[in-house]
């Protein structure tokens, strides 16, 4: 294999002069010592702590994970070590810990009469900086234009070539300095000399914060023409690549046209609703997705991808920038509308070509947005989809990276890795909520302890959420992490390796057991490719997170490099974050990978110290001869690798699979977000051992869905101190056992919430 370019983390799969590779992140690296070919990125500039920030004196230096071996300088001398960067793990503040699932808490509504610029109390809640609008846009929003004296710009209409005659009889004045060209500003020592005043700047940020996608509460009042012109003018002042201005605006008042459009939308809404899992379908049924007939006008924003001619600047290799530019026009329109007191709702439930025909658009135009515009009774304090429980806002800290993807940290903070940040944010159960749940269980109209393990689960859920009773753990999503294993070459299973790919296709087509069980309990199925050997199609329901095309044969050395294991763990954390931000309140583990029970046995043996024969099972049903060989293979893998249980990442890299590492991250992500994660069988149990070794309190987020017939699973559950909810001799994987247990977890939460107490029901309690 060829040496990768040294540009950074993604160089192996994003060649600088070619198309994206569908392979793993590290597939282009040499097999011997994968990761060694990457050079360290340039050291980022020193980050000074924000005013008032505290830097921990005992914080660990940041380790460059892309450069396990530092290259030598010319002449063979070792390269000098760069200065260590202090890592301050991101821990949620008290206000953040009280917010559901660790996501960003809603900002309080702003009183327009008393609005003041607010300094962020924590970097996660800091408002993003925004570029000041052009003067015309500022005037449209009601802000006073800056005076020439304030901005040091020449007055509008000034002609630098105009000659002013001197009065007769007076001496000529000293020649003045050459005036600045129009629209140029004089140099200033103050870098913020051109910033808006505090009041003007707050108006810009307020419009950004309070912009809402409005679907309800519209008034019938017409939009005055002058207001509509200002809004459209703001949209027309949007930036566009190559100044191509590829947008057009079709303003629709006619109710008949809008009624026909609404029929198109309704058909698509109904088709979408039929495809939703149960809990999602119930939530969606209460959401209004359009206000086409509720507003006095609709605006259709189109893009002309040909506008600007053949040689449009900036579109040479990125033709999609026409659509991007038009989306910026939509945003400008939206912000201006908010400043005018107008609500805007974006409708997307339509076939683009079908709607284009209804509106008789020229065939070369494409529809970017269909907007419903009108005055509203009020603007909601938070996005309607957030208030309705459909999704939640991602904290800014999740989206900011320094110098390269993966170095996390807000301005003014030191960078950290996603794994370090996640581990630092995992804590114990909320003891106040735990005590409240126990006390309520004792007062419920039932004999004490009569619900058995479900009572413990209800207390656990309350402690995780920090409130009693806890929110119902729904909607729920099962993430099926798929990967192949190099140890398959040792003949530990009769199933061919290509079955991994074939089963992934089956999951995506809805034909597997996990799909049937998920449909029964109303859960969402997401498949995550972290290490399948073959290429997989880009289809809904599949998350392409391929780290490598399978692992190496662990009997001959480590199954993965440490770098691969870390990437896989972080991929699992990201999946957990995405699913929770999308509105899920319970996560379930799933897996797919031929030969993954062999790697699971090795992990369980490594973390528990039990002999390979005690933890190795028959997997997919091997005969006695293959089983004995499988035990020998597990022993050989443990002997071929250095096993240090104090280094959980190293253990995963040595004898684990890419899906094990990703599942460990998935469990850590759930614990960080304080949502329950229902574990499936032995693969999930092995991954949980690694997760808890990394962060002991991660166990408090885990619920054992079932006990697998694989002996290693019982050993793992015993080591973790988890009691399974179901014991049916299952050994399928996929998430099947976790899905069967989901209704029990939900029942535990529902009982704590809905069952009356003795006092409330008027029932006499026993002495």
Outline of the structure:
It is globular and about 80 Å long.
Features:
single chain; 767 residues; alpha/beta; six-stranded parallel β-sheet; four-stranded antiparallel β-sheet; disordered N terminus
Description:
This protein is of the alpha/beta class and 767 residues long. It is 36% helix and 9% strand. It is built from 25 helices and twelve strands. It has a six-stranded parallel β-sheet with strand order 7-6-5-8-9-10, with helices on both faces. Strands 1-2-4-3 form a four-stranded antiparallel β-sheet, sandwiched between helices. Helix 23 (711-720) links the parallel strand 11 (706-708) and strand 12. Helix 15 (513-521) packs parallel to helix 24 (736-754) and helix 22 packs parallel to helix 23. The protein is globular, with a radius of gyration of 30 Å. The chain starts with 93 loop residues before the first helix and ends in a 6-residue tail after the last helix. The model is unreliable at 1-102 and 104-177 (pLDDT under 50).
Uncertain runs: 1-102, 104-177
Q: What integer is the average pLDDT?
A: 80
Strand order of the largest sheet: 7-6-5-8-9-10
What composes the largest sheet? 6 strands, parallel
Dominant shape: globular
Oligomer: single chain
Fraction of residues in β-strands: 5-15%
Relative helix content: 25-40%
Give a topology summary.
Blueprint: H1 94-98, H2 135-140, H3 148-151, H4 198-210, H5 225-236, E1 247-252, H6 255-274, H7 278-285, E2 297-303, H8 321-339, E3 342-347, H9 352-358, E4 366-375, H10 384-387, H11 418-424, H12 431-443, H13 453-465, E5 476-483, H14 499-509, H15 513-521, E6 524-531, E7 542-544, H16 562-581, E8 586-592, H17 596-608, H18 612-615, H19 624-640, H20 648-655, H21 658-673, E9 677-679, H22 682-694, E10 702-704, E11 706-708, H23 711-720, E12 726-730, H24 736-754, H25 758-761
Parallel strand pairs: 5-6, 5-8, 6-7, 8-9, 9-10, 11-12
Antiparallel strand pairs: 1-2, 2-4, 3-4
């Amino acid at each position: 294999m060829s040496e990768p370019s040294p540009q950074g983390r993604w160089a192996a799969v994003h060649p600088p002069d070619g198309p994206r590779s569908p392979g793993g992140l590290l597939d282009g690296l040499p097999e011997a010592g994968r990761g060694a070919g990457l050079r360290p990125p340039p050291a980022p500039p020193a980050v000074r702590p924000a005013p008032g920030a505290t830097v921990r004196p005992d914080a660990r230096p940041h380790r460059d994970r892309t450069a396990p071996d530092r290259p030598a300088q010319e002449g063979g001398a070792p390269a000098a070590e760069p200065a260590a960067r202090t890592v301050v793990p991101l821990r949620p503040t008290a206000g953040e810990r009280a917010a559901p699932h660790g996501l960003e808490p809603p900002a309080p509504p702003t009183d327009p009469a008393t609005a003041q610029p607010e300094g962020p109390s924590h970097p996660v809640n800091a408002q993003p900086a925004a570029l000041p609008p052009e003067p015309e846009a500022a005037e449209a929003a009601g802000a006073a234009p800056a005076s020439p004296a304030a901005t040091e710009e020449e007055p509008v209409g000034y002609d630098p070539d105009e000659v002013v005659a001197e009065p007769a009889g007076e001496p000529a004045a000293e020649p003045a300095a050459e005036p600045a060209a129009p629209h140029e500003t004089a140099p200033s020592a103050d870098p913020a000399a051109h910033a808006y005043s505090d009041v003007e700047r707050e108006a810009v940020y307020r419009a950004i914060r309070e912009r809402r996608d409005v679907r309800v509460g519209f008034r019938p009042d017409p939009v005055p023409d002058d207001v509509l012109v200002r809004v459209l003018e703001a949209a027309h002042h949007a930036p566009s690549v190559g100044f191509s201005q590829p947008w057009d605006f079709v303003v629709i008042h006619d109710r008949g046209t809008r009624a026909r459009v609404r029929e198109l939308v309704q058909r698509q809404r109904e088709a979408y609703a039929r495809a939703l899992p149960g809990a999602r379908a119930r939530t969606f049924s209460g959401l209004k997705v359009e206000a086409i007939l509720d507003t006095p006008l609709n605006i259709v924003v189109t893009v002309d991808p040909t506008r600007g001619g053949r040689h449009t600047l900036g579109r040479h290799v990125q033709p999609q920038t026409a659509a991007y530019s038009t989306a910026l026009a939509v945003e400008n329109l939206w912000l201006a509308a908010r400043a005018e007191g107008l609500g805007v709702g974006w409708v997307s439930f339509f076939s683009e070509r079908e709607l284009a025909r209804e509106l008789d658009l020229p065939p070369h135009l494409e529809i970017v947005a269909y907007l419903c515009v009108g005055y509203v009774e009020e603007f909601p304090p938070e996005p309607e989809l957030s208030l309705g429980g459909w999704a939640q806002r991602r904290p800014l800290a999740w989206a900011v990276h320094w110098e390269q993807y993966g170095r996390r940290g807000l301005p003014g903070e030191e960078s950290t890795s996603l794994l370090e940040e996640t581990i630092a944010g995992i804590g114990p159960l909320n003891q106040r909520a735990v005590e409240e749940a126990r006390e309520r269980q004792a007062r419920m109209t039932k004999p004490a302890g009569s619900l058995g393990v479900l009572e413990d689960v209800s207390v656990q859920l309350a402690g995780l959420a920090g409130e009693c009773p806890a929110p119902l753990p729904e909607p729920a999503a099962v993430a099926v992490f798929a990967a192949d294993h190099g140890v398959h070459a040792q003949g530990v299973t009769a199933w061919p390796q290509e079955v991994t790919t074939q089963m992934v296709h089956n999951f995506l087509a809805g034909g597997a057991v996990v799909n049937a069980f998920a449909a029964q309990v109303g859960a969402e199925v997401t498949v995550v490719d972290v290490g399948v050997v073959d290429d997989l199609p880009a289809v809904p329901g599949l998350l392409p997170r391929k780290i490598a095309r399978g692992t190496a044969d662990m009997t001959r050395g480590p199954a993965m490099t440490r770098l691969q294991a870390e990437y896989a763990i972080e991929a699992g954390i990201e999946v957990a974050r995405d699913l929770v931000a999308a509105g899920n309140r319970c996560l379930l583990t799933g897996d797919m990978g031929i030969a993954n029970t062999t790697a699971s046995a090795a992990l369980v043996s490594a973390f528990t110290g039990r002999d390979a024969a005690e933890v190795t099972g028959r997997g997919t049903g091997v005969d006695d001869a293959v089983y004995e060989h499988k035990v020998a293979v597990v022993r050989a893998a443990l002997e071929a690798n250095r096993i240090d249980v104090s280094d959980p990442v190293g253990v995963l890299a040595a004898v684990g699979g890419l899906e094990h590492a990703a599942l460990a991250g998935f469990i850590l992500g759930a614990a960080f977000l304080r949502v329950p994660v229902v574990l499936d069988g032995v693969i999930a149990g092995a991954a949980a051992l690694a997760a808890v070794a990394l962060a002991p309190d991660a166990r408090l987020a885990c619920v054992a869905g079932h006990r697998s017939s694989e002996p290693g699973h019982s050993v793992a559950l015993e080591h973790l101190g988890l009691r399974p909810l179901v014991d049916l001799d299952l050994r399928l994987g996929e998430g099947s056992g976790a899905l069967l247990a989901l209704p029990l977890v939900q029942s535990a939460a529902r009982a704590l919430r809905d069952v009356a107490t003795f006092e409330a029901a008027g029932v006499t309690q026993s002495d």
